[in-house]
Amino acid sequence: MERFIPDEDRLKSVEDNYKKIKSRIEESAIKAGRNPNDVRLMAVTKTVESVYINKALELGADLIGENRVQEYLGKKDELNLDGVEKHLIGHLQTNKVKQIVGEVDMIESVDSIRLAREISRVSMNKGITTNILVEVNVGKEESKSGIYLEGLDELLLEIAEMPNIKINGLMTIPPICDSEKEVSRYFETMHNAFVDIREKKLSNINMDILSMGMSGDFESAVANGSNIVRVGSAIFGARKYF
Ligand SMILES: *Cc1c(COP(=O)(O)O)cnc(C)c1O
Questions:
Q1: CA-based angle 111:194:176, to the nearest 5?
Q2: For the chain, how far is it from start to end, CA to CA, in angstroms?
Q3: Which atom from ligand 1 is nearest to the alpha carbon of 234?
Q4: Quick check: pTM over 0.90?
Q5: What confidence tens digit (pLDDT) does each residue in 203-241 have?
Q6: Burial (CB count <10 Å: 0-12, 13-18, 19+), residue 70
Q7: What is the CB < 6 Å shell around ligand 1?
Q8: Closest-CA residue to 186 (of 148, 221, 237)
């Protein structure tokens, strides 16, 4: 088997990028009058080879996000994951639920009753409780997964009744926008929805996590109350798809 040789320049740039992103998050939190410790940085590791992911982990990354079940299961044994939280952030098909439940600490991409029901069923069979976020399609884009805000309360209430599945908050990917002002409005809409639901104090519905903001817009997300920003390419470089 051919041995994989890590690129030293890329390792160095992961280090520089990671530190820069950390300090930009801190600055935007302070600017927004927030405690920087309230915003977690998730390193999004899809398509990234394990050596570069391990570099980020070595620098202190304590939360990673993967999109695809197969990819994550294929590389997790090469990662130094002691004390690291793992989230699934990509669209999850019902037929993959069995493979991923118990392998990650949270599934951020729950957007239907059918999917939630399957997570609940599999979790019960495995004797565990699975933590989830509900993914919201805030821009009502047909090409994206996620529930529209109009259907959110109903979905939350249904999931809250299911055994072995625990709602922790919301996740979103806003539409691609031309200006920071425009994207900021989507984040604000999400934050308002998040706060409204939290204030209702519904049983079995925890609203602790608002996961939003990616490489191009995380500062605006932090300004609008995000507490997990999911950053991939700004840490690891542009993605190559194989
Ligand atoms: C890929 C991905 C990210 C990270 O995107 P970047 O623009 O590379 O930071 C964040 N969230 C989800 C759900 C993703 O699929």
A1: 65
A2: 18
A3: 9
A4: yes
A5: 999 999 999 999 999 999 999 999 999 999 999 999 876
A6: exposed
A7: 44, 46, 67, 89-90, 173, 214-216, 230-234
A8: 221
